[in-house]
Amino acid sequence: MAPAGTVTFPSGVRVPAMGQGTWRMGDDPARRAEELAALRLGLDLGLTVIDTAEMYGDGAAEELVGEAVRGRREQAFLVSKVVPSHADRKGTAAACHASLRRLGTDRIDLYLLHWRGDVPLHETVEALEALVTDGSVGAWGVSNLGADDLADLPDGARPETDQVLYNLARRGPEHDLFPLLRELSVPVMAYSPVEQGRLLDHPALRTVAAAHGASPAQVALAWVLRLDDIIAIPKASTTAHVEENHAALGLRLTDDDLHALDAAFPPPVGKQPLEVL
Where in this chain does the record put each NADP-dependent oxidoreductase domain (predicted)? Predict the structure, then answer.
């Protein structure tokens, strides 16, 4: 079993249970210095999984990440993604090498198919596995794939993770996707774990937060992290926000807290379409 606060991929690689997201970062030059400081502070605090993608700002987020990890690449576990329109054999390799250039590295630790498109999954998986073989990526995974999509992967193909939208307001994956991933020993990577801030004024969340002397965001993160096979990747573009997120690692919700949050945000009672942002 992995130590508390870490998650182990099928490959055996172990990473912290909280990382850093970068969607909508790198776009505004006026915010660049603060965003770089936030990512670097995250590394200092052990939030070493940094998630990005070629589509985030048409590569601007990858360039930001590359600058943030310059001189300390070995401390970071870099995750990036290929868009479906690039996910054929040649396009996947070309997209990966473009991401490598923007990131300023010779290896992406985990490379994901961003969502399912028109390219057959077997072709994308072949392309991803070729990148693993040539050392351009450490491992491959998927994002925004539901249980039915995973069933369409080639025989024997097992992604390192499935990155999906998951938070108190988006609990659909608990019904069928999470049980399937647990059977495969594949951890979840949860994006938008605080629903881009839209959860934070909910009375139930605020009540639990007040009882712990915590912020609603910390409660929302602690709730996602209550499961030992989930990696949360909240975005934090300021150092104060990074510190707030990091403090959620020390928050332990009680059974009463969890019951109150279940009452306010009921778990799914049947299969639901996988939600995306």
Answer: 18-263
